[in-house]
Amino acid sequence: MRIVLVGPPGAGKGTQAAYLARNLEIPHISTGDLFRANISQGTPLGVEAKSYMDAGNLVPDSVTIRMAEDRMEQADAAGGFLLDGFPRNLGQAEALDTYLKGKGISLDAVLDLEVPEDEVVKRIAGRRICRKNSAHVFHAEYSKPKTEGVCDVCGGELYQRDDDHEDTVRKRLEVYHSETEPIIDYYKAQELVVTIPALGKVEEVTQRAMSALGRGE
Fold first, then answer.
1. 2-131+159-212: CATH homologous superfamily?
2. pTM for the full model?
3. Which positions in this protein are listed as binding ATP (predicted)?
4. Where is the binding site for AMP, in residues?
5. Marked catalytic residue, from 161, 171, 188, 215
6. Angstrom distance (rounded) from CA 66 to CA 79
7. For position 135, what pLDDT does the model report?
């Protein structure tokens, strides 16, 4: 299956993408992973992307598109893939369609993870990260540490990242609404969109998505 996963920040795309890709036995292709891999490996695309980032500029769509196409060309993606973070705007969506058409293939579905905006803000603004180990993540409401401000695992100080402050989260949502949300209507016109309510336990959301894809139990 060839799937695009979309949804606002805090919808749980990364978590759901990993579960769905494993259940469907297809590679999870994340924009973040693509950038990190190309930059760390010093590929021509990575060098080009880093030059923009080092200058404080946004990486052009053309570079992101070429990275995604290069990844979809790899052998493990021949039988399908799950795209997470790409396409991010209409230009990228149109480029993806052109690429797939050139290969004589098409998308099977676009999964739209739906979460109320207030819940998104609550999820992100409540996150607390351990300064000693960023893999230790807590939440002010959903996953409280035993002692406020102290990591249960290693005793490190818990803090709120600048990106997780409420005003920053709301700005990120504005960007999502203006740049990414329009691709949902674009794909609705192609009758590809399946809306998945993303409230509830991780495994419940995964099961809803699998059922929508006709792969449920």
1. P-loop containing nucleotide triphosphate hydrolases (3.40.50.300)
2. 0.88
3. 10-15, 127, 137-138, 200
4. 31, 36, 57-59, 85-88, 92, 161, 172
5. 161
6. 20
7. 86
